[in-house]
C-alpha cells in the first residue's frame, strides 16, 4: 500500500488512473466487455467500480465467492448472505464487489485467465479506479516445501525456463517479461508473518500450460518420458529457486506489468512434487488450505484500508 514509485506506477496517470497504451480504445464509441457482459454505454462504470482498490482473482467461482464473504467480514462491511455475481449475465465468470475489493474467478490456465484479466483491466480503466492492485489467489504443486505452505511469487518462469510470457501475435512469437511487483510481494510476505500455522515462501513460480506433461507428471493419460527425466526437470526447477508450479503466473505478471498495474500472486501448495504427482489430501483439508492465501491477502488489504 505504500506509495513509492516503481516501473508500474510510472505508466499510470498522475491521479493513479490507468493510462492504457492501446490508443484504439479512445476511438471507440462503446466498448463491450463481452465476457463480463458489461459495456461502457449502458453501465455507469465510474459509479459502479470507481472505488475499487483491489482486484483479487482466483481459479474457481466458489473460492472467489468465499473470498468476497471473507473480506467483507474482516473489513467489517455488511455481509450479504447471497453475494451478487455482477457478471452473471455473461454465463462465463463470477465477479463480486465488496467495498474496495473486486473478487473475480478466472478458471484454469492462461487463455481463460488472460481473457477475463484484460477485460477487468479495461473495466478499471473505464471506471477511473485509482492505483488498483491485482492479486491472484491460487493453488499449486510445491517443490521441496511442505504441502499447505504458501508461495508468494517473485517472478514467473515459463515451461521452457524463461522469465517471460510467450504469445503468438499476428503469426509471430512474442515474449514479455514476467516479473511481479517486488514491493507488493514483500508486503504480502510481511502480511503472512502473523500466520504461524503454515509456512510462507517468497520464490519463483513456474507457470505451466498443462497440468500433466506440462508439469512433468507421470500420471496423465499420455506420458513419453521416464521418472528419471521427470526428476531431473523438477530438480532443475528447484535449483533455479522455483518453489511451486501453477498455470497462470507468467501471463498474469506480464499483462499487469505492461498495463501499469501492481500485481502479486499468492498460491497454496497441495502436493510436494518432489514426492509425487497425485493430490491425495482429503477435500476438507484442501478446503482449509485454500484459505491460507486468503488469510494473507485479507490481512494485507485490511492493513492498506486502515492506513488510508
Ligand atoms: C492451479 O490449479 C489449477 C489446476 O488445478 C490451475 O488454475 C492452477 O494454476
Ligand atoms: N495446481 C497445479 O497447477 N498443479 C498442482 O500440482 C496442483 C494444483
Could you please describe the fold and organization of this structure?
InterPro entries: Nucleoside_phosphorylase_d (IPR000845), Nucleoside_phosphorylase_sf (IPR035994), Uridine_phosphorylase_euk (IPR010059). This is Nucleoside phosphorylase domain-containing protein. Belongs to the PNP/UDP phosphorylase family. Pfam families: PNP_UDP_1. This protein is an alpha/beta fold and 308 residues long. It has a single domain, classed as Nucleoside phosphorylase domain (Rossmann fold), CATH 3.40.50. Helix content is 31%, strand content 23%. It contains 8 helices and 12 strands. Helix 2 packs parallel to helix 8. Bound molecules: 1,4-anhydro-D-erythro-pent-1-enitol and uracil (URA).
- CATH fold field value: Rossmann fold
Residue stretches low in confidence (pLDDT < 50, at least 5 long) are none
How far apart are the termini? 9 Å
CATH architecture classification name: 3-Layer(aba) Sandwich
Q: Which small molecules are bound?
A: 1,4-anhydro-D-erythro-pent-1-enitol, uracil
DSSP, total strands: 12
Domain module count: 1
Which percent bin holds the helix content?
25-40%
- The neighbouring-strand order within the major sheet is 6-11-10-7-12
Helix count, DSSP H or I runs of 4 or more residues: 8
The biggest sheet, with number of strands, parallel, antiparallel or mixed sense and barrel status, is: 5 strands, mixed, barrel
Order of helices and strands, N to C?
EEHEHEEHEEEEHEHEHEHH
CATH homology group: Nucleoside phosphorylase domain
Q: Gyration radius, to the nearest Å? A: 19 Å
Average pLDDT for all residues? 96
**Overall CATH class:** Alpha Beta
Query: Strand-residue fraction?
Result: 15-25%
Globally, the shape reads globular
| Sheet/helix structural class | alpha/beta
Amino acid at each position: 500500500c505504500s506509495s513509492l514509485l516503481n516501473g508500474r506506477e510510472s505508466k499510470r496517470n498522475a491521479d493513479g488512473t490507468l493510462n492504457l497504451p492501446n490508443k484504439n480504445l479512445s476511438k471507440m464509441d462503446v466498448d463491450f466487455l463481452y465476457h463480463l457482459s458489461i459495456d461502457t454505454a449502458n453501465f455507469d462504470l465510474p459509479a459502479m467500480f470507481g472505488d475499487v482498490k483491489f482486484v483479487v482473482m482466483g481459479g474457481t467461482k466458489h473460492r472467489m465467492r468465499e473470498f468476497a464473504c471473507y473480506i467483507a467480514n474482516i473489513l467489517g462491511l455488511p455481509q450479504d448472505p447471497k453475494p451478487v455475481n455482477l457478471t452473471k449475465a455473461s454465463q462465463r465468470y463470477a465477479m463480486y464487489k465488496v467495498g474496495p475489493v473486486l473478487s473475480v474467478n478466472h478458471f484454469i490456465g492462461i487463455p481463460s485467465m488472460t481473457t477475463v484479466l484484460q477485460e477487468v483491466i479495461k473495466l478499471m480503466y473505464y471506471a477511473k479506479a485509482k492505483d488498483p492492485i491485482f492479486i491472484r489467489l491460487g493453488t499449486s504443486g510445491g517443490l521441496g516445501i511442505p504441502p499447505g505452505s504458501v508461495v508468494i511469487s517473485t517472478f514467473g518462469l515459463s515451461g521452457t525456463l524463461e522469465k517471460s510470457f510467450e504469445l503468438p501475435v499476428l503469426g509471430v512469437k512474442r515474449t514479455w517479461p514476467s516479473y511481479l511487483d517486488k514491493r507488493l510481494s514483500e508486503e504480502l510476505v510481511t502480511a503472512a508473518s502473523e500466520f504461524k500455522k503454515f509456512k510462507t515462501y517468497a520464490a519463483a513460480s513456474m507457470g505451466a500450460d498443462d497440468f500433466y506433461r506440462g508439469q512433468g507428471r507421470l500420471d496423465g493419460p499420455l506420458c513419453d518420458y521416464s521418472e528419471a527425466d521427470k526428476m531431473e526437470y523438477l530438480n532443475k526447477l528447484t535449483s533455479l529457486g522455483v518453489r511451486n508450479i501453477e498455470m497462470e503466473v507468467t501471463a498474469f505478471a506480464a499483462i499487469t506489468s505492461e498495463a501499469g498495474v501492481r500485481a502479486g500472486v499468492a498460491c497454496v501448495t497441495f502436493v510436494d512434487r518432489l514426492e509425487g504427482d497425485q493430490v491425495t489430501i482429503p477435500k476438507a483439508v484442501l478446503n482449509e488450505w485454500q484459505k491460507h492465501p486468503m488469510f494473507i491477502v485479507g490481512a494485507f488489504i485490511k492493513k492498506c484500508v486502515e492506513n488510508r
